[in-house]
TrEMBL record:
Protein name: Cell division protein FtsX
Gene3D superfamilies on file: 3.30.70.3040
PANTHER family in the cross-refs: CELL DIVISION PROTEIN FTSX
Organism: Marilutibacter maris
Homology family: Belongs to the ABC-4 integral membrane protein family. FtsX subfamily.
GO cellular component: cell division site; plasma membrane
Localization terms from the record: Cell inner membrane
Residue span, ABC3 transporter permease C-terminal domain: 197-306
Membrane protein topology class: Multi-pass membrane protein
Ranges annotated as spanning the membrane: 48-71, 190-211, 242-263, 283-311
Keywords attached to this entry: Cell cycle, Cell division, Cell inner membrane, Cell membrane, Membrane, Transmembrane, Transmembrane helix
InterPro entries reported for this sequence: ABC3_permease_C (IPR003838), FtsX (IPR004513), FtsX_ECD (IPR040690), FtsX_proteobact-type (IPR047590)
Length: 324
């Protein structure tokens, strides 16, 4: 009994002392964590070189992002103009107020009209006094020379509606500002296209910067990579630290680009707000929100990951030992 119990205790002790082999998923996660930490260590080991690479990438990212933000603010600034599609119909002076009211009701009943507002000559004169401050000069005019005005908001195609309103026998002048707004829309579309082209070109430039930096790091570790290949390490195992290195470059460059754009926004916001107030507007410059900021940083990280992946894959194919 004592021998059996001693042998059983020895086997139990051996089982407890035997190390537990990690699972494949655990080993995979451990190597990812190690690769990330090692990549950060390489960045800290060469701070000046890393700062130059991150700075160049940040500039390449900030230029199209700044243009994109500027276009967004311009679109928001002119948004009230874009939404205000009113057509001003100045009636003939001989049109009576009763007929002007009837005409407003007739136009509002049309399917291509969303709303109609009638401004009487008295309302127009009061608005002119409030805007100009020339009460004495207006009083010297005598009778009110202003006509009735119909402010028509289109419910469909404004160009067709404006042409239809010009045929009204009571209409003296139809004022419509669609031409310059169409030109503004064309300029904004051109700006968006320009921002996309710049983003593509500078994004390729940032990708090449990361790729060249990672290539130099690979050249310095060529012997280490050769040994790992001789020991049977897969390309994914060897490439993983360099991928994280490129992603770190991209993420830090995205953060730096956002910081530069935010500082620029803070510097320009007071002057632009003062200029907007001089025109009677409460416009305030807006930067990137949290969602956009996260997307920009993540996109920059993916860009760095891709640049490192392209260069690393090409280099590993060249350094792979030939079979004899």
């Amino acid at each position: 009994m004592s021998a059996d119990s001693s042998s059983g205790g020895a086997s139990a002790s051996a089982n407890r002392a035997a190390p537990r082999r990690p699972s494949r998923i655990g080993a995979w996660a451990d190597h990812h964590a190690f690769s990330l930490i090692a990549s950060l260590g390489r960045l800290l080991a060469k701070p000046w070189a890393a700062a130059l690479t991150i700075g160049v990438m940040a500039v390449a990212l900030a230029l199209p992002l700044g243009l994109w933000a500027a276009l967004g603010n311009v679109e928001r600034f002119v948004g009230d103009v874009q939404e205000a599609r009113e057509i001003s119909v100045f009636l003939k002076p001989e049109v009576a107020a009763e007929r002007a009211g009837e005409l407003a009701a007739e136009l509002e009943a049309r399917g291509d009209v969303a709303a109609v507002e009638l401004r009487t000559p008295e309302q127009g004169l009061e608005a002119l006094r409030a805007a100009s401050g020339l009460d004495e000069a207006i009083a010297m005019v005598g009778d009110n020379p202003l006509p009735s005005v119909l402010i028509v908001r289109p419910g469909g195609d404004e160009l067709t509606l404006a042409a239809s309103l010009e045929t009204l026998p009571e209409a003296d002048l139809v004022q419509h500002d669609a031409v310059w707004r169409q030109r503004l829309d064309s300029w904004l579309r051109f700006g968006v296209r320009l921002a996309l082209v710049l983003a593509m070109l500078l994004g390729v430039g940032a990708l090449l910067v990361v790729g060249n930096t990672v290539r130099l790091d690979i050249q310095q570790r060529r012997e280490e990579i050769s040994v790992l290949q001789q020991l049977g390490a897969t390309d994914g195992f060897i490439r993983r630290p360099f991928l994280y290195l490129g992603a770190c470059y991209g993420v830090l460059a995205g953060v730096l680009a956002l910081a530069v754009l935010t500082a620029t926004e803070w510097a320009l916001r007071p002057a632009l707000a003062e200029l907007a107030r001089s025109y009677g507007s409460d416009f305030v410059l807006q930067g990137f929100g949290l969602t956009h900021a996260i997307a920009i940083v993540a996109g920059a990280g993916v860009l760095g990951w891709l640049g490192a992946g392209l260069v690393t894959g090409h280099t590993l194919r060249q350094t792979r030992p030939t079979e004899t």
